């Protein structure tokens, strides 16, 4: 295949964690031959006996797992899903690419299966993959952890500086509600009453305890709705 290239195998300088010989590489169901799998901190590489192979960058690897389902594949292996395309260049593939260009939302996916001759090495291969991929976190995941809101400076507020959040009691909250807000609150209270009431009815029987619990629950929920209503 055209993407197979000749390059020196990863070594200690690349943070080699696992080297597994006699490992067959399979791409999208097509066998690439038997060679050596190199799991290094810098990249995941495979080379056949002639020195041809490929490397996968960890940020492109979306999934890796040990597959023992013999119905999915006849031999146990290390399954790796990559967000990239590895195909043999041909007239047909070029035509397919032109058609695929019309749909930019479809992300290419390639499925690799690394089948070691010694299946007992699968756990060590998987562990090495986990350790190496952890060194290459997804930048999008890091960005999602950023907090865009304003931080509450406890020390500044203790010194009387900055704006202090406003809290209202139930009665104060009602007095600050607009007409629309009061109508919304009444509608929510009606819905809440029906919901809470249904919890204390069973086969048409209501006891004195259930009535008292219902009234207390409805009263507490009504206070919470009033206190948490947005002031407009």
UniProtKB/TrEMBL annotation:
Keywords per UniProt: Cytoplasm, Cytoskeleton, mRNA processing, mRNA splicing, Nucleus
Positions with biased composition (Acidic residues): 139-153
UniProt region (Disordered), positions on chain: 1-21, 135-161
The keyword Nucleus is annotated on this UniProt entry: yes
UniProt xrefs under InterPro entries: ICln, ICln/Lot5/Saf5, PH-like_dom_sf
Gene Ontology cellular component terms for the protein in this record: cytoskeleton; cytosol; methylosome; nucleus; pICln-Sm protein complex; plasma membrane
GO biological process: cell volume homeostasis; chloride transport; spliceosomal snRNP assembly
Domain of life: Eukaryota
Subcellular location: Cytoplasm, Cytoskeleton; Cytoplasm, Cytosol; Nucleus
Entry keyword Cell cycle: no
Function, as annotated: Involved in both the assembly of spliceosomal snRNPs and the methylation of Sm proteins. Chaperone that regulates the assembly of spliceosomal U1, U2, U4 and U5 small nuclear ribonucleoproteins (snRNPs), the building blocks of the spliceosome, and thereby plays an important role in the splicing of cellular pre-mRNAs. Most spliceosomal snRNPs contain a common set of Sm proteins SNRPB, SNRPD1, SNRPD2, SNRPD3, SNRPE, SNRPF and SNRPG that assemble in a heptameric protein ring on the Sm site of the small nuclear RNA to form the core snRNP (Sm core).
Subunit structure and binding partners: Component of the methylosome, a 20S complex containing at least PRMT5/SKB1, WDR77/MEP50 and CLNS1A/pICln. May mediate SNRPD1 and SNRPD3 methylation. Forms a 6S pICln-Sm complex composed of CLNS1A/pICln, SNRPD1, SNRPD2, SNRPE, SNRPF and SNRPG; ring-like structure where CLNS1A/pICln mimics additional Sm proteins and which is unable to assemble into the core snRNP. Interacts with LSM10 and LSM11.
Family per similarity comment: Belongs to the pICln (TC 1.A.47) family.
Protein name: Methylosome subunit pICln
């Amino acid at each position: 295949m055209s993407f197979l290239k000749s390059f020196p195998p990863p070594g200690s300088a690349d943070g080699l964690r696992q080297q597994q010989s006699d490992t067959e590489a399979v791409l999208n169901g097509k066998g690439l031959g038997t060679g050596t799998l190199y799991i290094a901190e810098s990249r995941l590489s495979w080379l056949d006996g002639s020195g041809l192979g490929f490397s996968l960058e960890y940020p492109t690897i979306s999934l890796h797992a040990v597959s023992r389902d013999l119905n999915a594949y006849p031999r146990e292996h290390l399954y790796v899903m990559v967000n990239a395309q590895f195909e043999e260049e041909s007239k047909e593939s070029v035509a397919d690419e032109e058609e695929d260009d019309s749909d930019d939302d479809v992300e290419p996916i390639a499925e690799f299966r690394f089948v070691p001759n010694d299946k007992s090495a699968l756990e060590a291969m998987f562990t090495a993959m986990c350790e190496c991929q952890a060194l290459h976190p997804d930048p999008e995941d890091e960005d999602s952890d950023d907090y865009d809101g304003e931080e509450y400076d406890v020390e500044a507020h203790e010194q009387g500086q900055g704006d202090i959040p406003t809290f209202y009691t139930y009665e104060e909250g009602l007095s600050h509600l607009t007409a629309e807000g009061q109508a919304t609150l009444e509608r929510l209270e009606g819905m809440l009453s029906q919901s809470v009431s249904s919890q204390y009815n069973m086969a048409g029987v209501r006891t004195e305890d259930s009535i008292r619990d219902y009234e207390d629950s409805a009263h507490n929920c009504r206070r919470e709705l009033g206190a948490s209503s947005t002031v407009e």
